[in-house]
Amino acid sequence: MIDLGISKLALIGVVALVVIGPEKLPRVARTVGALLGRAQRYVAEVKAEVNRTIELEELKRMKETVEKTAREVETQVSATAADFEREWAEVTAGLDGRSSSASTPDDPPAWASLGTPLQPRATPVRKKKSFRLQRQAVPQWFKARSGIRRHALSGAARVARYRPKNLPR
């Protein structure tokens, strides 16, 4: 990169003052500053785009590894589930002297003969009073004394009620 010190910048400024002249120098300096700003913004945008591309590629790689791991876990779980089902069928095949495939859907389950359940029946839940019913429970005389609005006012009625008395209509 170009190494510009204070002495080099002063020399460039003096040469520019002599070559361009004092009348046009401020306008040229503004133009050069604007062009340098645009160049810096362009470089920053390019850097940001490159960083976004790199991050996107990293995310794609991470996604692929996660999907691969999920597939492996899924195959392991399905294999374990198949082994469990097979072992469960072997263990339950000898119960009650009949196989698990010989039971009919009309037969009551074995636990049905144990008796009634120990938990009582659920009682229905009472609904709470609605907000409007609770508001109506307050007496009208109390609403009038405490300033609670009892009726809705239209726009014209509200203007007429709250208009100052000393203004002409």
Automatic annotation (TrEMBL):
It is found in: Cell membrane; Membrane. Residues 93-131 are annotated as: Disordered. Keywords: Cell inner membrane, Cell membrane, Membrane, Protein transport, Translocation, Transmembrane, Transmembrane helix, Transport. Its main location: membrane. Pfam families: TatA_B_E. One of its GO terms (cellular component) is TAT protein transport complex. It comes from the Bacteria. Residues 99-113 have a biased composition (Low complexity). One of its GO terms (biological process) is protein transport by the Tat complex. One of its GO terms (molecular function) is protein transmembrane transporter activity. InterPro entries: TatA/B/E, TatB. The Tat system comprises two distinct complexes: a TatABC complex, containing multiple copies of TatA, TatB and TatC subunits, and a separate TatA complex, containing only TatA subunits. Substrates initially bind to the TatABC complex, which probably triggers association of the separate TatA complex to form the active translocon. Belongs to the TatB family. Part of the twin-arginine translocation (Tat) system that transports large folded proteins containing a characteristic twin-arginine motif in their signal peptide across membranes. Together with TatC, TatB is part of a receptor directly interacting with Tat signal peptides. TatB may form an oligomeric binding site that transiently accommodates folded Tat precursor proteins before their translocation. This is Sec-independent protein translocase protein TatB.
